[in-house]
Amino acid sequence: MSETRKIYGQMLRAQQRFGRAIKDTNNPHFRSRYADLGSVWEACAEHLHAEGLFVSHQVRQVNGQQYECVTLVYNEDGDHLECAFPLTPQQAGPQPMGSALTYARRYGLSALLGIIADEDDDGNAAQSRPAAPAKPQAALIDPVQAFRAALAKTKSKADVRAVYKAHNNGLTQAGYGQLVADECTAKAATFPDHTPIPAQ
């Protein structure tokens, strides 16, 4: 029990010195800003290490089907605190899982350390909202799905480059810039005379 209390004291001292997590990334879906994983880490890493604490993220399988990302803070004695966050990628494949993992690491780290990484919307995003006027169906399409649908229809490197130019700015602001570059490059590689996407 005394060892567990030790890590509580270390966490308290570290948390008292945490900096602010800079909200430098836009969420276009809710018109808000949030601190990405890098900003959250910059706010806490130095102070955790000064107290002899380090962070680890592990992926665990739950009930043989569902996966979760577990954020753990350890001290030098091996005592730890943890926070689990479910992994719920919208599609199968390494890129959707990677995006879900980054999302879970950010939320898990913020929750475990008490760092405010998102704007407080008074729970609006988590609860039902009053019915809004009907919007064109195209406005309801997930931007990543729209990008992938357009990429699937490409028949040449020129098509891939056009898709990249059309979708890169918006998805980069939403935190998916690397996903766009990687998937466009992979698609372009299926055509002759492959050159990297985006073109220099």
Write the layout of secondary structure elements.
Layout: H1 2-15, E1 25-27, E2 32-34, H2 37-50, E3 53-62, E4 66-75, E5 80-87, H3 94-113, H4 143-152, H5 157-173, H6 177-188
Antiparallel strand pairs: 1-2, 3-4, 4-5
Helix pairs in contact: 1-2, 2-3, 4-5, 4-6, 5-6
Note the main attributes of this structure.
200 residues, alpha+beta, Enolase-like, domain 1, 2 domains, three-stranded antiparallel beta sheet, two-stranded antiparallel ribbon, 44% helix
Protein architecture, described:
- The protein has 200 residues and is an alpha+beta fold.
- It folds into two domains: 1-119, 2-Layer Sandwich (Enolase-like, domain 1), CATH 3.30.390; 137-200, no CATH class.
- Helix content is 44%, strand content 17%.
- The protein has six helices and five strands.
- The protein has helices at 2-15, 37-50, 94-113, 143-152, 157-173, 177-188; strands at residues 25-27, 32-34, 53-62, 66-75, 80-87.
- It has a three-stranded antiparallel sheet with strand order 3-4-5. A two-stranded antiparallel ribbon has the order 1-2.
- Strand 1 and strand 2 (32-34) form a beta hairpin.
- Helix 1 crosses helix 2 (37-50) and helix 4 packs antiparallel against helix 5.
- The model is unreliable at 26-33, 120-128 and 134-140 (pLDDT under 50).
